[in-house]
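Bit of a strange request maybe. I'm writing a small parser for structure token strings and I need a real example to test against, not something I typed by hand. Could someone generate the tokens for this chain?
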Amino acid sequence: MIAANNTRSTNNDPVESSESSPITGAANGGSSRLMRQFGSLFQPAQQRNDPAGYVEFGSISEGDAHSGRTLGTFAGVFCPVALSMFSALVFIRVGFIVGNAGLYVTLLQFVIAYVILLFTVSSVCAISTNGAVEGGGVYFMISRTLGPEFGGSIGTLFFLANIVGCGLAISGCAEGLIQNFGPTDGGDVGSIPDGRWWRFLYCSSINTVMLLVVLIGAEMFAKTSMMILGVVVVCLLSTYVSFLSMGPMEVAIPVENDLVQNATNKALGSYTGLNMSTLAANLYSHYGQDYTSSGNAVNFAVVFGVLFSGVTGIMAGANMSGELKNPSRSIPSGTLSAVLFTFLCYIALSVLMAATTSTFLLQNNFLFLGPVNLWPTFVTIGILTATFSTGLSNLIGSSRVLEALAKDRVFGSLLNFVVRGTFKSNPIAAVIASWALVEAILLIGSLNTIAQINSVLFMLSYLATNLACLGIEITGAPNFRPTYKYFTWHTAFIGMVGTGVMMFVINPIYASCSVTLCLLLVFALHFFSPASQGAQWGSISQALMFHQVRKYLLMLDSRKDHVKFWRPQMLLLVSSPRSCCPLIHFVNDMKKGGLYVIGHVKVGEFSENDSSNDPTIEEYTQWLSLIDHMKVKAFVELTLSKSVREGIQHLIRISGMGAMKPNTIILGFYDEEQSKDFFEHENSPYKTAEFDDNGIKLFPFRRSGEQKPLLATDYVQIIDDVLRMKKNICLCRHFHRLDKQMIARSNHIRYIDVWPVNIFEPKNEDPFDVVSQFMMQLACIINMLPVWKRLELRVFLCESESQPEPSFQMNSAPFERPAEHRLSMLLKSLRISASIHQIPEWGKDMDVSRHRNILKQFTSQSDSNQVMTEENVNRSKLYMQRVNQIIRDKSNATAVTFMYLPAPPKLSTIDYKEKCHHYLGLLTELTYDLPPTILVHGINSVMSTTL
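Reply from user aminoacidic:
Good idea to test on real output. This should exercise your parser:
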């Protein structure tokens, strides 16, 4: 039996679920924390195992709240941010920017860059002060806000950004070495050789030294961030002093600049000291060529890409939140003060360069600061410390992001080597993998080219951070309460648009590739990632969908419904899904994009004296797992009620929301057929052990010999309730025989049959009334789907010769009877492709008119004063058996049969209980041994012949 209401669980027969305790992510065990020092420098600490099978970076426990948080605003935020934002730009490329773009454009570019950074800092501060940011920095923030798909993809790009940033810093460090120790005017003895592959060798050597530092002494280096920043600031001050005190001089152009150098004439550039003429000459743009990248032309985009690559360190303070005494205060104040400090330093440096150095020298010697400095060694020290520390920071940062991706199992087992390759909390495998990728980046060679790639990748990370904050703010999430008060959705929106636009301004190709890669990662992670963190982390997509669905549900007005846009909205009432898997799947096909709700009534009482929880809460996750297993697009509604009938009334009323309410109720048939367990049957496509919990079967169903908890009278009353609540109803029988795989491959199964005749009261006047139209609509929907499309739709016309034919004025086709012609014209006007089949036996062998009055006794047409006789009951059964034989003879190749369901007898009739039993008995005889059959009763018109 596929009866949806043949069995019910009761409070005396509880079913325990293996998933009754939802995974929350706050598992027992120690907390996990990655110490992040100096921008992206992290020191992994104790980790805890998450019940979902991955490691989550949780909150700091009370025990280590004071021992682990030791840094203040200056050491913990200001120093890492300022040092990361100076990077390779301050001593190596500001002259390149001023010399090509001119002072006005340079100042404009710094303003644009810092405005973008300022708004992004607002988003960073908002997320950082709304909860602890743990290992992985920006990856942690985005993944825990946007969800695993977006978080994993953006985290991967941020990992690549750190790799490229490390390559950029190493290239700058190598330039500093070549400038100070490489060939000069005459190729001094003892100087190191220069050339493309020599430079790659130097870069590789620096990269290897960084690798050794990370593997051995990264923690010690992290504690020296204040001292390193002090060295850089002293070197920078020496540059300012030199600009103000040094007089005019000639500065040699580097020998590798073959754009202006030749073998006979050694080119020189002029340093004039403070000079108004020099300032005037440098006010406007003079774009030239980049001698470090084979003479490529320089333009606004190239200059801005180089500029922005040097100021991408704003995340360094947020990465330190686990070590700060007061993150909510230190991150905003430390980051903003560092941004302001570096902005003023860059502006002052740009103005002094424009006022003291000729355009020719600025464009052709990117390292001219050394020769014009009072103490040239200071510039060398500044270049080496700034670039080496930034490169080291990025190398360690990228390895920690890779470690976080591996522990979150974003890419499944692909990154297992990272987790296994950890020694004493140091992710050695991740560090070596990062080092190898940096080597690949160094093959690019040109610092300016690397800078553009670096800028695009960091901008994409910043765009995602702004998008995360904007999404949370738009959805109005109650738990988004950052203590940073200067954040609004306007700041996030401006930051997002600014980063998005400037990405494409810098380099449209790099930006397009980055966005494409990001989207590909999003789709790949969505469909193929084994990670199941969405429920534990929270996903912004769920919040956005809730926000939009609520808005559109409010706009959806049931008073504006029109028959042209009608679609079935199904409520399938299920007792045990074990016995009706094919029916669940069939209804999913029949919904045609409409609402599909699977409803279940649990019989019992919700007593105030009962200390246990509502059992439907515990079982709900089991039903959601069922939806996943069945792969149907449905919602689940469970209710607890004293009786099945009362519970079904509740489900019909409360299922859905707003204008999206079920209009069609589907029940299994009430009969004595033995139920089949599709979860255990060997040849079942639904076979699974997922719902067997230590020998206890979830979703139990009635076994052979067990008494039905639902009486036949109750079942008929449920049908009557549905119709009185103005809902369409379908009774489904024999669906345990439905095999979609066989239908798809078998040539024997060829038809979908519709019998639009009320067997209990056949008429010729209207062969296609409201009920018949409804069942035809359902048949058409099934016939539209790929598996069912190859089947032919057949409509059977049953005419009684004892009924006089109505007058018919139109010219009918030859050999076509008027009733058939009317039906044919109606099908044509409704755009239904179906063949019409006459049933000759109907009028010849059966006295329909004699049985009509007898059959009325068992339907809503019954006269309340009419008393049944045993003779009438027997005659009715014989009549139904003859009708059943006719239908069976036509159904040898039928996949599904749709039949007319008459309304049940009214409650006010005499012998109501007996009539209910006979009503069900006649339906049972009518549908005996047929293919999967749906008895349909519709109450409203669902078809339209107009546009």
